[in-house]
Specification:
Layout lengths: L15 E3 L2 E4 L2 E4 L13 E6 L7 E6 L4 E7 L2 E6 L4 E6 L4 E5 L4 E5 L6 E6 L8 E2 L2 H10 L5
Antiparallel strand pairs: 1-9, 2-3, 4-11, 5-10, 5-12, 6-9, 6-11, 7-8, 7-10
This protein binds dTDP-4-keto-6-deoxyglucose.
DTDP-4-keto-6-deoxyglucose (T46) binds next to strand 4, strand 5, strand 6 and strand 10.
Length: 148
């Protein structure tokens, strides 16, 4: 996995995507299909569940990975930081997706009971794609911009 800071995105690029929902008297159906409405090539799917009250997930960034997070049950909060700007998103509906890309530090907190965080990922699992040291992450991001 290459160290490709030029791929890094900003918090403002991490957007909420409305997923198409079909509703009728039997309930709701949400669907995601190739390039619609999520424009990443999905190579991996995983989910977080049975997260104990007060537990936090994440606490890292990625060099290359794009991911989409969906709360398919319950709710949780995703805190994003690009080294300059930070923003938090409450995910509490199965028809909302949050796109996160390379160079974004993420922490996930406030999991409700019975919450499930579904993640669609653009790459296979690769430990060397992780940036797990926050100080190193900040250095990487701040080195991108000219110092005054
Ligand atoms: C992210 C948040 C939302 C695997 O073996 N395969 C996998 O696909 C993943 C994601 C993890 N693992 C192993 C690696 C660790 O030994 O599972 C263990 C826990 O992984 P981690 O501590 O990275 O889990 P989270 O919930 O803190 O973070 C995960 C993703 O790693 C991360 O990219 O954005 O979910």
């Amino acid at each position: 996995m290459s160290i490709s800071q030029n791929k890094f995105i900003n918090v403002s690029d991490c957007t909420i995507i409305d997923l198409p929902k079909v509703s009728d008297s039997r309930g709701n159906l949400v669907f995601i299909q190739k390039n619609s409405p999520i424009n990443i090539d999905i190579k991996r799917v995983y989910y977080l569940y049975d997260v104990p009250s007060g537990a936090e997930r994440g606490g890292h960034a990625h060099y290359d990975l794009y991911q989409v997070l969906i709360s398919i049950s319950g709710s949780f909060t995703v805190h994003l930081n690009d080294g300059f700007e930070s923003k938090s998103f409450l995910l509490n509906r199965p028809d909302l997706a949050l796109l996160i890309g390379p160079g974004i530090w993420r922490e996930i907190t406030d999991f409700s009971s019975n919450s499930i965080c579904l993640v669609l990922a653009s790459e296979l699992y690769c430990e060397s794609d992780y940036i797990r040291d926050f100080n190193y992450f900040m250095q990487l991001r701040r080195d991108e911009k000219p110092q005054n």
